[in-house]
Write a structure and sequence with these properties.
Layout (H helix, E strand, L loop, with lengths): L1 H67 L5 H49 L2 H12 L4 H8 L3 H14 L1
Length: about 170
């Protein structure tokens, strides 16, 4: 009897370990995706910094030119020469905002999926019910595993648990 209980406990521990490994793998993939997005944001920030530096240099150059030119007012010269830079900065800001919104949406989706995976790992009753229904129809564990896209060991574990509780 004690050996049977020890066997059941071992099966439970193995089942939990398999589910934990699957969840960890999925989380690692999600983290890799988020890291890639963060790298893109970093690159865009560097590009903005570079453009700001160019803008400052252009402003200094324009001031020197303005001192040599007398026809236009300083404000007109600055506005005329800054227009392309302003448009580029606005475009980059729009891209950053779009990427930020997309990242926020993805993080929310990932959070929802992580919660679903955790909930599913804790409450896998629908899979268990399907396994038991298919077994009652006379299907073997390998066929059930293929139909439900589950591991054969997981199907066998559920069937063993159902026999113990019956």
């Amino acid at each position: 009897m004690i050996a049977g209980l020890a066997g059941v406990m071992l099966i439970i521990v193995l089942y939990i370990a398999v589910k934990d490994r699957e969840t960890s793998r999925k989380l690692a993939m999600m983290e890799a995706g988020i890291d890639g997005m963060n790298q893109e944001i970093f690159k865009l920030s560097k590009e903005i910094d570079r453009m700001k530096k160019e803008l400052r240099e252009e402003l200094m150059r324009m001031e020197l030119e303005q001192r040599h030119e007398g026809g236009e007012t300083s404000e007109q010269v600055i506005n005329r020469k800054l227009q392309p830079f302003v448009l580029q900065v606005q475009h980059l800001q729009e891209q950053i905002d779009a990427i930020h919104a997309e990242l926020q949406e993805r993080v929310e989706k990932l959070d929802g999926k992580v919660r679903q995976v955790a909930f599913a790992a804790e409450h896998s009753a629908p899979d268990e019910q399907k396994i038991l229904q298919l077994h009652a129809q006379g299907l073997d564990s390998e066929t059930i595993a293929k139909q439900l896209r589950l591991g054969k060991g997981e199907v066998e574990l559920v069937l063993k648990f159902s026999k113990i509780h019956a």
